[in-house]
């Protein structure tokens, strides 16, 4: 027979609460009020996951809106990590980026900006206004061109 004994955890002093925990330990921290819970959570680095147990939706909403964590689960544990369609990942010291499904693809992909313009005499004539020596005429011409085309940028292949 295996017996489990709950430990009393002091979130402000125990060594257990100083770093991220990757199980099999799940500390349960009680708070006297929702404001006290927010204070305790904010006093530590942002956790990879946070679990809220409450039947009071206003308490849950305040904790969600007043804290930051990689993931959050209300009235259960670890489910947010099991659903492949939900992003999983940390913030701050717990890491940046999300994994699972499309989030994995996006995290491990590099989105590169590519600008391509034709290299011909007409374009070079237009672009000559960008190069020194500068004058008021060049500045006014480039300002005019920018105002005309500022909403006309189309991505390559778009």
List the helices and strands and how they pair.
Layout: H1 34-42, E1 49-52, H2 57-66, E2 71-74, H3 79-82, H4 101-107, H5 121-127, H6 136-149
Parallel strand pairs: 1-2
Q: If you had to describe this structure to a student in words, what would you say it looks like?
A:
The chain has helices at residues 34-42, 57-66, 79-82, 101-107, 121-127, 136-149, and strands at 49-52, 71-74. It starts with 33 loop residues before the first helix and ends in a 9-residue tail after the last helix. With 158 residues, the chain is mainly α. A two-stranded parallel sheet has the order 1-2. It is elongated, with a radius of gyration of 27 Å. One of its GO terms (biological process) is aldehyde metabolic process.
Oligomer: single chain
CATH homologous superfamily caption of the largest domain: Aldehyde Dehydrogenase, Chain A, domain 2
Instruction: Give the terminus-to-terminus CA distance.
Output: 65 Å
Q: What would you say the CATH architecture of the largest domain is?
A: 3-Layer(aba) Sandwich
Helix segment tally: 6
The total of beta strands comes to 2
User: What average pLDDT do the residues reach?
Assistant: 79
Large-scale geometry: elongated
Please name the CATH topology of the largest domain: Aldehyde Dehydrogenase, Chain A, domain 2
CATH class of the largest domain: Alpha Beta
Structural class: mainly alpha
> Which range best describes the helical content: under 10%, 10-25%, 25-40%, 40-55%, 55-70% or over 70%?
25-40%
Any idea what the radius of gyration is?
Answer: 27 Å
Uncertain runs:
none
Order of adjacent strands in the largest pleated sheet: 1-2
Total number of domains: 2
Strand fraction: 5-15%
Please write the string of helix (H) and strand (E) elements.
HEHEHHHH
Largest sheet: 2 strands, parallel
Protein name: Aldehyde dehydrogenase domain-containing protein
GO molecular function, one term: aldehyde dehydrogenase (NAD+) activity
Keywords: Oxidoreductase
Domain Aldehyde dehydrogenase: 11-113
């Amino acid at each position: 027979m295996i017996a489990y004994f709950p430990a009393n955890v002091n979130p402000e002093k125990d060594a257990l609460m100083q770093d991220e925990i990757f199980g099999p330990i799940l500390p349960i921290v009680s708070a006297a009020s929702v404001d006290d819970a927010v204070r305790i959570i904010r006093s530590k680095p942002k956790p990879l996951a946070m679990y809220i147990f409450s039947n009071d939706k206003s308490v849950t909403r305040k904790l969600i809106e007043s804290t930051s964590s990689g993931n959050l689960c209300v009235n259960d544990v670890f489910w947010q990590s099991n659903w492949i369609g939900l992003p999983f990942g940390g913030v701050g010291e717990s890491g940046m980026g999300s994994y699972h499904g499309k989030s994995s693809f996006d995290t491990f992909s590099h989105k590169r900006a590519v600008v391509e313009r034709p290299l011909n005499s007409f374009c070079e004539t237009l672009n000559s206004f960008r190069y020194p020596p500068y004058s008021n005429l060049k500045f006014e011409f480039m300002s005019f061109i920018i105002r005309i085309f500022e909403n006309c940028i189309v991505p390559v292949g778009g």
